[in-house]
Amino acid sequence: MVETTHPPFDAAMKRHLVMALAAWFPLAAQAADKDPTDYSIRQYSVMLGVALLGGLVSWINKVRAGQLPAWSLMQLVGELATSAFSGLLCFWICEWTNTPQLLTISLVAIAGHMGTRAIILFERWAERRYGLRLPDDHLDTGGEHAKAADHPQ
């Protein structure tokens, strides 16, 4: 793994970051009033459908690459369930940040395609955002999902 160094924050960069965060916080506060039950079945159906489509594409790619057998229904169901869950998490995060709908749909599809890798990225984001430190062993699924999240292609 190649380590990259980032330039230190200078005063101008810090000011820009503070200004961006100050502009973003009212949007996040407005989104805090939303409830998962406030969305229509139609909206959830579209988001989950896009996430499932992303998961299906991921599964097809894995079958073509020889990583999964095409006849394994359990692998397909597992891939789709993980894709739906990661897409749903992405949808809620996008709603919380008031992301535009077209961008939200795109991000939900990407999260659905990423599956477990997206969930691991969400966990790492939460660790940084809230100052948490989860044990590394919870990320190991015993398979290549954890390895793929650490080394995306």
Can you characterise this structure?
With 153 residues, the protein is an all-alpha fold. The protein has one domain (39-150). Helix content is 69%, strand content 0%. The longest helix is centred in the middle third of the chain and has 24 residues, at 41-64. The radius of gyration is 18 Å and the shape is globular. Mean pLDDT is 77; it is low at 1-7 and 142-153.
Radius of gyration: 18 Å
DSSP E strands, number? 0
3D shape: globular
List the secondary-structure elements in sequence, H or E: HHHHHH
Distance between the termini: 13 Å
Question: Largest sheet, described in full?
Answer: none
Percent strand: under 5%
Q: Specify the number of helices.
A: 6
| Domains, number | 1
Poorly predicted tracts of residues: 1-7, 142-153
* Proportion of residues in helical segments: 55-70%
Mean pLDDT metric: 77
Q: Supply the helix-strand structural class.
A: mainly alpha
